[in-house]
């Protein structure tokens, strides 16, 4: 039998080498592929600067304070969050968090391989459910990768691990723990341990008991399920006890402490944060927040998340005085009318030298209505009545018209499509513009406005600080346009500053989260819109409203003798009452009325005519200026006046000249009410506030006349007038009824003479 050829001998080492080589190639290729894949996942993170805390704490509240930084006005935040330092947190919270969330926290370098392996075993064997994310990874997920928080993938885990390692290279373990505890979600839109401690237990995080600390530590695992307000706290207690078990097993607490804490009841003591973050003076504070966006260009997100510190212009003493004066005046009006909380007051007080808003009251109750009557936010302004005559006065002085120029202030006046009357159809005769202003003659100022041109009045008001739309008809001088107290205070402040206009602002300074000053309104740049001589001349006339015996605003006089210049104003049917007044230190506008609309079934009530708003100004300013010496307005020369005559409107001559003042003085004080029919050129009916029926506001317009030192041309008393003959369509120009000032002869007292002169006066 033939031997079979022997088979070729195999070399097992060569085969093994081939297998190993192939496997190695596969592993290397796989490793290269995995590396390439991993790099693609973290490519956008390689240049990420984890040292920039703006990237880490993505949401920090912004705080607002009064001008002295002693009274907090607001905390604006996206979430309820209040960062604290590690030494402001209970040790129980620190230990419980580490024991429960990451017991090897102080040993790993950002991610924990041993923890991952342990979690895999527990989850695969079904012996429980355990997470593998370290505290550092959770912090990364909640801040830097918050947009990927809900994504469950290996990619997200790789990105978390990469950034966690980078974080641990920059920050210490304690710093990471602090940042984690300041950003973690504790349920009910509450973020951070301090906010959670206040939210659920109304105490600081440093004061938490062991049981309370364990309850809070247990919440982040499932904030909507484990927080103390859910299901009577049942889930919270179960989770709390698990935290206590972990603290015991890790040696942080004794058995006795553990048992006592587990037996302790869950005693929740809630503090519910305000929704809008406003803590004090809501009308001012809400307006300030609006201005941050509209004037400073800050976005809502920046305000809620930027961590800014806003120092406002608010003077708390002035604000408290303003609110008290507003409450008292509204109470007086309601009590006099026998009504319940119908009338309310609004006001604004401005520093004339800077435009800083020192006090602002927008209404009776912010919780009832967020419509800010002081600024018009959420609504509109109100008709200002005769307080708008100030702009006609200034426009006249700008045009070179001496306030001593005489003007026809007849009881009534008719113009094409428009008629005007003084309060109670009072006959003021021919008197100086200054005296017409003091008694608030509607007919006199309607004539002056038409002579100047309504556009001149409107442009003057705009230059001085009125921002609302204005009409271009003669009735503009009677305050028919809706304006706000803040606008009026801003415009009047231009006079107190000697003709320099400052835009008003509620913001003094703004600091960013790094305490860097980013906005500084400590000093503001004003714009000269009036010559000092014009402003000074106008102020001297306005002082007569308060100081003159016939002035409509004598109730605005101050206790320390401080000079006050101002103007009362009331709209038709006493729907609105105003006093706008200035001193060198402050410009103030007070409004009183019913905030409801002028028209309709539920229209606003009329203010009792006996209630004066000028006294509210005095109440406020007496507090603000308490202990301060009286100071004068800056002095200036007279403007370069020119002789001015307008026969069409009964204007011409000056008091003390041949065109002597023929006004009569009465013994009783009148009211400043603005009454007009139609509206100058609109041929329409202006109700609810045409400035021809001006009343409350102090001794409002209309006027109390006690004899002036200058002799009156007619010594004999005026007889009761017979019914006034219909006035001519145009007022009689320059009546000049002044008799020869020599001793009257017997013929002067004859009945025909008296009757003739009476008719002359009435026709004027």
Automatic annotation (TrEMBL):
Compositional bias segments (type: Low complexity): 675-685
Biased composition annotated in UniProt, kind: Acidic residues: 717-733
Transmembrane segments: 14-42
GO MF annotations in UniProt: penicillin binding; peptidoglycan glycosyltransferase activity; serine-type D-Ala-D-Ala carboxypeptidase activity
Superkingdom of source: Bacteria
Extent of Basic and acidic residues compositional bias: 661-674
Keyword terms, alphabetized: Carboxypeptidase, Cell shape, Cell wall biogenesis/degradation, Glycosyltransferase, Hydrolase, Membrane, Multifunctional enzyme, Peptidoglycan synthesis, Protease, Transferase, Transmembrane, Transmembrane helix
Protein name, per record: Penicillin-binding protein
Species lineage: Bacteria, Bacillati, Actinomycetota, Coriobacteriia, Eggerthellales
């Amino acid at each position: 039998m033939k031997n079979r050829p022997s088979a070729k001998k195999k070399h097992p080492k060569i085969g093994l080498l081939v297998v190993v080589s192939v496997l190695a190639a596969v592993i290397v290729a796989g490793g290269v592929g995995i590396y390439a894949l991993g790099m693609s996942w973290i490519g956008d993170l390689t240049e990420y600067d984890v040292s920039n805390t703006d990237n880490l704490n993505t949401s920090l509240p912004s705080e607002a304070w009064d001008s002295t930084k002693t009274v907090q006005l607001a905390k604006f935040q996206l979430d309820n969050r209040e960062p604290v330092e590690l030494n402001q947190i209970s040790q129980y919270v620190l230990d419980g968090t580490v024991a429960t969330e990451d017991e090897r926290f102080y040993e790993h370098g950002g991610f924990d391989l041993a923890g991952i392996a342990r979690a895999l075993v527990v989850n695969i064997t079904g012996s429980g459910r355990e997470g593998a994310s370290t505290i550092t990874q959770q912090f990364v997920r909640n801040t830097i990768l918050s947009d990927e928080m809900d994504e469950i993938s290996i990619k997200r885990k790789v990105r978390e691990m990469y950034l966690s390692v980078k974080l641990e290279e920059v920050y210490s373990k304690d710093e990471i723990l602090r940042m984690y505890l300041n950003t973690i979600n504790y349920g009910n839109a509450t973020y951070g341990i301090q906010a959670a401690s206040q939210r659920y237990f109304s105490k600081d995080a440093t004061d938490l008991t062991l049981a309370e600390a364990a309850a809070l530590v247990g919440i982040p695992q499932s904030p909507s399920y484990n927080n103390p307000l859910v299901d009577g706290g049942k889930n919270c207690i179960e989770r709390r006890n698990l935290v206590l078990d972990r603290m015991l097993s890790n040696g942080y607490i004794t058995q006795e402490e553990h048992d006592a804490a587990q037996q302790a009841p869950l005693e929740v003591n809630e503090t519910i944060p305000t929704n809008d973050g406003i803590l004090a003076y809501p009308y001012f504070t809400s307006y300030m927040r609006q201005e941050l966006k509209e004037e400073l260009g800050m976005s809502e997100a920046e305000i809620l998340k930027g961590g800014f510190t806003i120092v406002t212009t608010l003077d708390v003493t002035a604000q408290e005085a303003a609110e008290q004066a507003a409450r008292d005046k509204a109470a007086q009006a309601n009590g006099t009318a026998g009504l319940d909380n119908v009338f309310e007051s609004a006001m604004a007080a401005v520093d004339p030298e800077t435009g800083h808003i020192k006090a602002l009251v927008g209404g009776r109750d912010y919780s009832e209505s967020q419509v800010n009557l002081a600024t018009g936010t959420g609504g509109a302004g109100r008709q200002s009545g005769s307080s708008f005559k100030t702009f006609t006065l200034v426009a006249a002085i700008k045009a070179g018209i001496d306030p001593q120029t005489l003007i026809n202030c007849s009881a009534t006046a008719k113009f094409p499509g428009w008629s005007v009357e003084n309060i109670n159809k009072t006959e003021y005769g021919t008197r100086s513009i200054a005296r017409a202003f003091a008694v608030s003659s509607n007919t006199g100022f309607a004539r002056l406005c038409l002579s100047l041109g309504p556009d001149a009045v409107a442009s003057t008001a705009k230059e001085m600080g009125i921002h609302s739309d204005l009409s271009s008809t003669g009735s503009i001088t009677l305050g028919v346009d809706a304006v706000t107290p803040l606008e009026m205070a801003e415009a009047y402040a231009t006079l107190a500053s000697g003709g320099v206009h400052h835009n008003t602002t509620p913001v003094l300074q703004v600091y960013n989260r790094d305490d860097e000053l980013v906005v500084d309104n400590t000093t503001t740049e004003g714009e000269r819109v009036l010559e000092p001589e014009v402003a000074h001349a106008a102020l001297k006339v306005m002082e007569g409203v308060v100081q003159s015996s016939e002035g409509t605003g004598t109730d605005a006089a101050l206790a320390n003798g401080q000079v006050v210049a101002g103007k009362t104003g009331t709209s038709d049917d006493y729907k609105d009452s105003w006093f706008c007044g200035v001193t060198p230190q402050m410009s103030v506008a007070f409004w009183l009325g019913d905030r409801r609309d002028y028209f309709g079934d539920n229209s606003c009530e009329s203010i009792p005519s006996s209630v004066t708003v000028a006294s509210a100004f005095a109440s406020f300013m007496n507090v603000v200026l308490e202990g301060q010496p009286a100071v004068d307005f800056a002095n200036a020369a007279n403007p370069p006046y020119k002789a001015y005559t307008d026969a069409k409107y009964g204007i011409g001559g000056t008091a003390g000249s041949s065109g002597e003042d023929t006004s009569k003085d009465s013994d009783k004080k009148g009211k400043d009410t603005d009454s007009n029919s139609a509206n100058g050129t609109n041929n329409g009916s202006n109700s609810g506030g045409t400035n021809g029926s001006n009343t409350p506001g102090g001794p409002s317009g209309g006027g109390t006349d006690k004899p002036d030192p200058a002799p009156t041309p007619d010594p004999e008393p005026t007889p009761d007038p017979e019914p006034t003959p219909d006035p001519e369509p145009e007022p009689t120009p320059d009546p000049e009824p002044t008799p020869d000032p020599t001793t009257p002869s017997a013929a002067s007292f004859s009945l025909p003479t008296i009757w003739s002169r009476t008719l002359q006066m009435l026709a004027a």
